[in-house]
Amino acid sequence: MNLKKSYILFIFCFLYFFSQASVQSDSAKVSTNLIVAEKNFSNKINDVFEPIVAKMGEFLFWDPFSSMGIYDPVVKDETGQVILDSKGQPIEKHIPIIVVWLVLGAIFFTIYMKFINFRGFRHAIQLIKGDYDNPNHRGEVSHFQALATALSGTVGLGNIAGVAAAITIGGPGATFWLIVAGFLGMSSKFVEVTLGVKYRNIDENGEVSGGPMYYLSKGLKKRNMGKFGAVLAVIFAILVFGASLGGGNMFQANQAYEQVALLFPVFEGNGAWFGLGLAFLVGIVVIGGIKSIAKVTEKLVPFMAIIYIAASLVIVLINITELHHAFSLIFHGAFTPEAAKGGVIGVLIVGFQRAAFSNEAGVGSASIAHAAVKTEEPISEGLVALLEPFIDTVVICTMTALVIIFTGYHSASMSAGADGAQLTSMAFGSVISWFPYVLLVAIFLFAFSTMISWSYYGLKGFNYLFEKPLTRLTGQAKFSKYTYFFIFLSFTVVGSASSMGAVMDFSDMMILAMSFPNIIGLIIMSPEVARDLKAYFKGIKEGTIKKYK
């Protein structure tokens, strides 16, 4: 039996026995009368990460404006009453320094690239249609497959739960700034994906490795900043590996299970078994590599987006007479100083923060998937990638926001303390009773697609750190790959069977923290991208870059 088959068999045998061991702690979780003397695995993880999370949060989510007393972070309704969350705690909205960093980066790239988010849109559509696909170009997937894979990593629970949180905290006005953030994020995505393709590695077997690890190290080395670039690349690789296990895996599995158990009580207390089944499905796809992932995502992403948008459109059409009122609430809330009792800046930041969590523009993760595209023109894939925040945030997130506003669930009296995916589900169910089941399908597909994409991102980060030493140690070229998948799929079971607590906060922080090394590198290399962009459009105009359809 070869190494690949041996590892696949070992992984799934381990997961089976691991799930058996997890059932006991999973059952204990739902039995309120059973006292557990020993801490379960989740508790132990939380004990390790809680102090780490606290320290990271002090920096990444530090709010300098609130600290200086410029505004009150506690959210109040129109009558001045404090709004409480589902746990009865006051809701606060802050302006985290990490979000300010992402916003400033997006504004810089939009202006520096001369509003490429608008002037490159038409050509991006031509590219995903395959008009410029050269069959002789190196790479592993088409423009459309690369876009679908990257979208599957960003279109997820943030589009359902994140938007609901934005409206709960910032009111309908947050929707406007969420859309603005989506447009600005298109420019960040363009720059990072262009560099991801330009500095990618293609080995003798045609397998591609790309992303911030490579353009930070190779691109900055060209500028006599090799050591600085190497440090940034290692930091990013560590963060993307950790984020893939947490936000890209455990959180998705946990939330998918919670939604299934909510609508189908028979699953209550069987999270480990659910996790085992989900790990099996994910494993079948991801062990086949980026080509296998792309084949699934190119079919799954359009399907799940159509399901969700169609359900949303039904609600919009039913309430079409309220369209003017809904948009009045959005624009009034976005620009009125008294909006949500937090002022324009507060509502603006809430919208930008949820957009950043949703589309990950500036974080750098999507450039790992886009690097595998079949092209010799890095700018072309950068243009394709700018469609990603548009679809994810401007279209899908806006549909969620409109559903919540049309059904009246933006009001504190209607939401009754619900937040996140629960609030969105209530809004859907208020129109047609069986719509929450449609939402359940969307949530499961969103979670599944996010997991398979993030497994690829995490693999590239893990390989960047460990592939060479592990290959030298074992003599097996694929040892690093299957070791990572063993870890990744194990955490799928953990995520389904446990309450993650601080681990989830930790993984979310790592996803956002990826933007620090990434945006530093993007700003340094942006003049290079601007020159390449000018040359590319010149080539289109002169016909040196040809159409093939």
Brief summary of the model shown:
By secondary structure, the chain is mainly alpha-helical. Mean pLDDT is 75; it is low at 21-40. Helix content is 73%, strand content 1%.
Descriptive overview:
The protein has 549 residues and is mostly helical. It has one domain (55-542): Up-down Bundle (Amino acid/polyamine transporter I). It contains 24 helices and 2 strands. Strands 1-2 form a two-stranded antiparallel sheet. Strand 1 (201-202) and strand 2 (208-209) form a beta hairpin. Helix 8 packs across helix 20 (420-429), helix 11 packs parallel to helix 22 (479-497) and helix 12 packs across helix 21 (435-474). The longest helix has 40 residues, at 435-474. The two termini are 45 Å apart. 53% of the residues are buried.
Would you spell out the secondary-structure blueprint of this structure?
Layout: H1 3-30, H2 41-60, H3 64-67, H4 97-112, H5 116-119, H6 121-128, H7 143-154, H8 157-170, H9 173-198, E1 201-202, E2 208-209, H10 212-221, H11 226-263, H12 271-286, H13 290-318, H14 323-335, H15 343-359, H16 366-370, H17 378-385, H18 387-406, H19 412-415, H20 420-429, H21 435-474, H22 479-497, H23 502-513, H24 515-542
Antiparallel strand pairs: 1-2
Helix pairs in contact: 1-12, 1-22, 2-23, 4-9, 4-15, 4-24, 6-17, 7-13, 7-18, 7-21, 8-15, 8-18, 8-20, 9-10, 9-14, 9-15, 9-17, 9-18, 9-24, 10-11, 10-24, 11-12, 11-21, 11-22, 11-23, 12-21, 12-22, 13-18, 13-21, 21-22
